Amino acid sequence: MAGGLNGAEPVIRCRDLTKVFGSGSAAGRALDMAREGASRGEIQQRTGATLAVRDVSFAVEPGELFVVMGLSGSGKSTLVRLLNRLIEPSGGSVEIDGRELRGLSDAQLRQLRNRRISMVFQHFALLPHRTVLQNAAYGLQIRGTSEGEKRERAQWALDQVGLGDRGDAYPGQLSGGMKQRVGLARALASDTDVMLMDEPFSALDPLIRRDMQALLIRLQKELSKTIVFITHDLNEAMRLGDRILLLKDGRLVQLGTGPEILAAPADDYVADFVSDVDRTRVLTAEDVLREPRLVARLEERPADVLRRLGAAEATGAYVVDDDRRILGVVHDEWLGQAAASGRERIDPGALDDGFATTGPDRPLIEILGRLGRHAVPLAVVDDRGRLLGVVPRAAVLASLAAVPTRS
Ligand SMILES: Nc1ncnc2c1ncn2[C@@H]1O[C@H](COP(=O)(O)OP(=O)(O)OP(=O)(O)O)[C@@H](O)[C@H]1O
Ligand SMILES: [Mg+2]
């Protein structure tokens, strides 16, 4: 996950954020009831007001793709609208870059929405009588950028979303997926570091949706945007989110990375929810990584390595250099002969390449077919070829069966 680790200040921070929809007196009674712990249903029944968002606290780090996920009515859109103060909170606070939104003047708020935070909606309206390029430039229109700069920025944004050659078309000539990409381009053209996206892909066909998700992940990496992404689709949340905030009835029920939520659901509701997630796509090599027990050095005595192998009931071991780079695999057969003939070191010529490697970020679905083919478990290596750990078959199977394997 980006940010946080380097101690950077969160881009967005909410504290006890609460929103009630209802007339003044009803809303007041609703808040009182909420404080006493009444459920959303009870509050609705007794006061007629809707407690849409309830005591939600979280912080979004710079460069993070932060997903808010929940069923219809759980308060997602309300939450995201509170973040740029399209609606006023009934309680709690929102800070952007450490500044309380409540303290901003109207002019400052406009400035914030133009320069700092852009928003993409599920069904946002393209202007039908304007070209795709003009639509992409729309956010800039309002801001009064020069004509040439506007066109340049909009063209760049269209290039980013793969519509660079459709600038002269009209929205009516585009497919749904393309229109949604124009919406994304509009947000990109405005060049804000923060993007709020309220179910931008929900109306798209599954395959187009996948393309859009891949596009978003790429853009987010390349342009290092901070994105709050709303979805009601858990698989989408798992695919996109650095972290996922789960909302239920306006409350935060869990906040964590996809693998964290899969490994330890906060309650039965979440457990039920995640039960049909495709774990092979969510969990990565890093999530099932184990400390390699059988790592040897060339300087070691074959008899000693053989003993360790025997104790672990294994038939081969990785041999690594001083930087933990893998030199090869040594097998029990050779070790047995070498031990019998009293050798003091492992002979580099005895090593073979009977092993497979993968990167820490690779999903299990890519790894599954490569497990168990060799005497040594699959090696997880970093981009410099250093051994980070191994993936034993049992660890993968346990994680797929949702058996907690880490405590
Ligand atoms: N302007 C409003 N006035 C009154 N009630 C509202 C208003 N906006 C939202 N609500 C209510 O607040 C609750 C949360 O709504 P919200 O739109 O935030 O949910 P959501 O998670 O975005 O749902 P969906 O997935 O259907 O978009 C719902 O009960 C909704 O009816
Ligand atoms: Mg919504």
Automatic annotation (TrEMBL):
Entry keywords, A to Z: Amino-acid transport, ATP-binding, Nucleotide-binding, Transport
Span of the signal peptide: none
InterPro entries noted in UniProt: AAA+_ATPase (IPR003593), ABC_osmolyte_uptake_ATP-bind (IPR051921), ABC_transporter-like_ATP-bd (IPR003439), ABC_transporter-like_CS (IPR017871), CBS_dom (IPR000644), CBS_dom_sf (IPR046342), Gly-betaine_transp_ATP-bd (IPR005892), P-loop_NTPase (IPR027417)
Coiled coil start-end: none
GO MF terms, alphabetically ordered: ATP binding
Keyword ATP-binding assigned: yes
PROSITE patterns attached to this UniProt entry: ABC_TRANSPORTER_1, ABC_TRANSPORTER_2
One of the Pfam families matching this protein, by short name: ABC_tran
Superkingdom of origin: Bacteria
Domain ABC transporter span(s) in chain numbering: 12-274
Family, as annotated: Belongs to the ABC transporter superfamily.
Protein name per UniProt: Glycine betaine/L-proline ABC transporter ATP-binding protein
Species in which this protein is naturally found: Pseudonocardia yuanmonensis
